[in-house]
Each structure stands twice: as C-alpha cells, then as structure tokens.
Write a structure and sequence with these properties.
- The structure is a single chain.
- The chain is mainly beta.
- The protein has an 18-stranded mixed beta sheet that branches.
- A hairpin with a 2-residue loop joins strand 5 and strand 6.
- The chain is elongated.
Length: about 475
C-alpha cells in the first residue's frame, strides 16, 4: 500500500513540474461555443492573437488585424486601426465586395473612417459604388457611418452599373478635404444621407446617361451630380465641375426634409437639367452664397427654386442671366455707399407734373455699403415746392414751411425690411435754413448753402427702398434770390 502511495505521489509531482514548464499560451486557442461571435467563428476567442475582423473591405478583401494591407494592382491599401485611417497608395481597385448584393470597391461600416489618397489611385467598375458605407438595420433603415476622404494624391472613380453606379455613397456625413477626386458614374457622383463638406479640394463629376431595360422597354438612366438626402452641402475654397446628363447637378433633399447649400468660396461649374435642384416637394430648401464664382448651364433652368430661397451676402449675386433662365452666373457685384437721386420738383403753376432739375443734388448714404442696383433711370426724389403740405398737427413753433419728399430707388439682396442711412436733399428755393426737421423724425445733422442732411430709415419691399417724408423748415427767405 505504501509502495502504491509513493508511486502515485511521484507521478503527481512529475506531472506538476511538467505543467509548470509549459507556457500558458499553449492553452489559449480555446473557443467557448455559444458565447459570442469571436473572430467570426461563432465563439469568443480567448487568444489575444486571434485575428480581429474589421467591418472594412477593399478590393473584395476583408481587412483583419492579421491582414492590414491589401494588394490593389500595383499599389496597396493599408489600414491603421489605431487611428482609423485607410491609406491608398497608387491603388488599383477593380473588384467589389458583394455584401448585401452590392459591389463596392471600398465598403466601410467603420464609424468615422478616414481615407487618405496618395499617388494615382483608381476604382473601376466594381459593380456598384466606388466607395460605400451602405448599411441597413433590420427595419431597412440606413445606419449612419461618417466618412472622410483626403490626401495629396488623385482618386479616379469609374462606375458604369445602371441604378447602382455611385461614385461615393455615404450613409452619414461625408467630408472631402484637401483632395482631388474625378468621378464618372452611371448614377450619382457624391451621395450622402447627411451633410457633405467640401473644402480645399478639386472635384469633378460626370453622371452620364446609360440605357437600361425598364418595364416597357429600354429607358434612359442618369443620376445626379451631388446629392444630400437630408442634410447640407457646404463648399469652401474648392473647384467643382459637376455634370448630370438628365437631372440636377446638385440636388437638395431627395425628397426628404429640406436641404441647404452654402458656398463660401471657390469656383463651381454646374451642368444638368437644373444647376441647383430642390427635391423637397414643398421647395423649402435654401441656398446661401457668401462668396465664390458659379457658372450654370441648364437644360431647363439654373434652378427650380424661387429666388426667395437664395440669400446672397458680401456683395455676391447674379451677375449674368437669371435664376429662372438656362444660363446664370453668380459672382462678386459692384457695391455702393451712395445712391444719387435725380431730383424732380414742382415749383410753379406752370409745372403740371414733376420736372427734372439737373442742377439740384440729392443722395442717400446707407449705414453699410450695399450692392449697387442703380440703373440711372429708376432712382428719384420728388419734391413739391409749389404746393406746401399741411402738417396734420400744425407747424411746429417757428417753422415757416413744410414740404413733402418722395424717395425711391431699386435695391438687390437687401433682406431686411428697412434700410438706415442719411438723406441729403436740396434746400427749398430762396431759403437759408436756421434749422430743419423731419415730421415725426430727426433734426438735421448738417447743412450747406444748398443742401441739408438727415438720418432716415427707408422701407424695403419688392426690390425697392422708398419713403415719403415731410420736412419742416425754419429759416430766412430772400425773395429776390433765385437759387
């Protein structure tokens, strides 16, 4: 009995020593079934070296922690999971990932992926989108994934598949910064469910026409140049050349909530059925132009949106053509800080109507410069000197006469309902004013031997600034003087 006990004890001690010499990593390749997806195997891998499968496919190859570099023709695509950046270097992508029946040269379901383009990179006829973040939940709602494309290289995308040939399809917000992108697509060049921000970039899109089979036979198909489904398009310091064969070069709202387009600077050339199209049925999208140069050549009109949907700032506006015409140019316009007002007066019984008086001077100076909309014929100030007005409350003490002045001139891109400034008008004939005041308004701020100046606020409506005012004068009269 003692002999057996000694043998067992010796055997146990030997086994213990043996186990202590074996590394623990030898037991790590154990998968516990039914506890999760693990490394895509249906279990949770306890081995730290088990590959991580990222939701990112390039050239129909899934990126994993053991395979961060994908050969793409003569170039490569390299993913850095630590900074969430996919770098394309002279990449030639020709095969699409067919997950969920779509072919995408690059398919990303990684949030906030940044794609850096170096050298000459191409994505060609992958069966669907060149770059996509397409992803749906169980209820077929799009799952948003933001995407950024940047880099010093050139990215050329050619996708000729009808219905699905998008250049870049983003379910979240799309940022293009410091990039050069050339897209030829059978559907839409740039599409985002959220915002599209383009800065310091050159982007060319040709959404060309293709023939495909419809319910009753061959039909023409084409997408749009740039589309935001529910968000805003913001363009800064970029050059865009956007063409759609059959639809709008830029589409806002599709046909979801109203979208918006803001151009801060850059040069845009837009060609299509419309240059800027509102896909919202209520036509409630809006466009803000803070700078830049825009040339539109359209089959139907520069836009299907009302002019009231456009806001022009910083002296920018339509410099040639019109928004409802087929050609239209938006550029910097001349501005002015003084609007000269040709003077017409009634001075005697022989004046049956207002007579132009070229020798008299009148002008309005806005508090801030405005776009110069003057034509030389639509500006005027009309004064009745012969039929003195009657102040309903009577002349103020010491004032000799009261006259009516009607001011009117055209304005463009003044969005307030009033326009403040100073008004300089001629002094009544034979009068040396001691003081003057606008009835219900301000006293004069200055006067010369021929003019008097007041602060005034004009009304703005229907493209005109206008005001009818009465001015009381207290002065000395020289009836022998013919001014």
């Amino acid at each position: 009995m003692k002999t057996k006990l000694r043998k067992f004890t010796a055997w146990f001690l030997c086994l213990t020593v043996l186990l202590m010499t074996v590394p623990m990593s030898s037991f790590a390749d154990v998968v516990i079934p039914g506890t999760g997806t693990g490394a895509g195997t249906g279990g949770v891998a306890t081995n730290s070296t088990t590959p991580v499968n990222y939701d990112l496919w390039v050239n129909d190859v899934r990126i994993t922690s053991n395979n961060l570099t994908v050969a793409c023709g003569a170039g490569t695509a390299v993913y850095d999971p630590d900074i969430n950046v996919l770098t394309l270097t002279d990449a030639e992508i020709t095969t699409g990932c067919s997950l969920e029946y779509l072919g995408s040269g690059i398919l990303s379901r990684v949030d906030d992926l940044e794609i850096v383009v170096l050298g000459d990179c191409t994505i060609t006829n992958t069966g669907g989108e060149g770059i996509s973040t397409y992803h749906q939940d169980a209820s077929y709602n799009l799952i948003p994934h933001d995407l950024k494309v940047c880099g010093s290289g050139t990215l050329t995308i050619n996708e000729d598949t009808a219905y699905y040939g998008y250049g870049i399809y983003c379910t979240g917000n799309l940022i293009i910064a410091d990039a050069t992108i050339d897209i030829t697509s059978a559907m839409t060049g740039l599409w985002a469910n959220g915002n599209i921000d383009i800065a310091d970039s050159t982007v060319t899109v040709d959404a060309f026409e293709v023939m495909t089979m419809g319910m009753t036979g061959p039909v023409k198909m084409s997408g749009f140049g740039i589309v935001t489904n529910t968000g805003a398009i913001n363009i800064e310091n970029s050059t865009l050349d956007i063409t759609s064969a059959l639809h709008g070069a830029i589409l806002l709202g599709n046909p979801g909530p109203a979208g918006s387009l803001t151009i801060d600077s850059g040069n845009l050339t837009l060609n299509g059925e419309y240059g800027i199209e509102d896909g919202n049925p209520a036509f409630t999208s809006n466009v803000v132009i803070n700078g830049g140069h825009v040339d539109i050549t359209a089959n139907t009109a520069a836009t299907n949106m009302p002019e009231s949907s456009f806001r022009f700032n910083n002296f920018y506006g339509v410099s040639a053509g019109e928004l409802d015409e087929k050609t239209c140019t938006i550029d910097l316009l001349p501005s002015t800080s003084r609007i000269d007002l040709p003077v017409s007066t009634i001075e005697s019984a022989s004046d049956t109507d207002y007579v132009v008086r070229p020798a008299l001077t009148a002008y309005f100076e806005p508090d801030s410069a405005i776009v110069d909309a003057t034509t030389g014929t639509n500006e005027s100030i009309k004064i009745d000197y012969y039929n003195p007005m009657v102040n309903p409350t009577g002349l103020d003490t010491g004032y000799n006469n009261i006259y009516e002045y009607n001011i009117e001139f055209p304005v463009k891109y003044v969005y307030a309902t009033t326009l403040s400034g100073t008004l300089t008008v001629p002094i009544p004939n034979k009068c040396f004013p001691i003081s003057a005041k606008i009835v219900g308004g301000a006293m004069e701020t200055s006067y010369t031997s021929t003019t008097v100046t007041f602060p005034v606020t004009l009304d703005v409506a229907s493209g005109k600034a206008s005001k009818s005012i009465m001015i009381e004068y207290r002065g000395l009269y020289d009836l022998t003087l013919d001014l």
